[in-house]
Amino acid sequence: MTLISVLQAANATAALPSTANMPSTNDLLIDLLVFIMATFLGVGLIRGVTRLLHTPLMALTNAISSVSMIAALIVMSESSNTTILILTTVGVALASTNVISGFLLVERINRLFRKKPAPKKEGQAK
Fold first, then answer.
1. In a domain, 105, yes or no
2. What does the pLDDT read at residue 71?
3. For the whole model, what pTM was predicted?
4. Is 102 inside any structural domain?
5. What is the domain extent for residue 90?
6. What is the dihedral of CA 92, 41, 49, 107, to 10 degrees?
7. Is residue 104 a contact partner of residue 49, using CB atoms and an 8 Å limit?
């Protein structure tokens, strides 16, 4: 008996989880490489932003976080793997924190730029 036939027999009896739906190691390495490259690109882009564009950029990243939060909720609803459920729960918690605090901060910054009404003079007619 070879090792492959033993594993196939064990898989047939449901002793081992099925490996048909599991991604290969090569796919995981490519995904990790894309994630690392996107991280460095994002950091480089954020550091190059002037102060004038900071508020619109922050509003845009809040929108992206909300999209990623919805995607994580969809993955949570369709997954039965415990590891994926834990990771998506953490992702939803972090994205919701980012969205809420980001919107609060953008609103505070926008209040700084609003024109204040001119004070009324005492002798003016209403």
1. yes
2. 85
3. 0.50
4. yes
5. 47-113
6. -10
7. no
Q: How many domains does the chain have?
A: 1
- 20 within a domain of the structure (yes/no): no
Burial of 15 (0-12, 13-18, 19+ CB in 10 A): exposed
Give the Cα separation of 30 and 70 in Å (integer). 24
pLDDT digits (tens, 9 = 90+) for 1-56: 565 555 555 555 444 455 556 667 777 788 788 888 888 887 787 777 777 776 67
Any domain includes 63: yes
Predicted confidence (pLDDT) per residue in 44-91, tens digit: 877 777 777 766 777 777 778 888 888 888 888 888 888 888 888 998
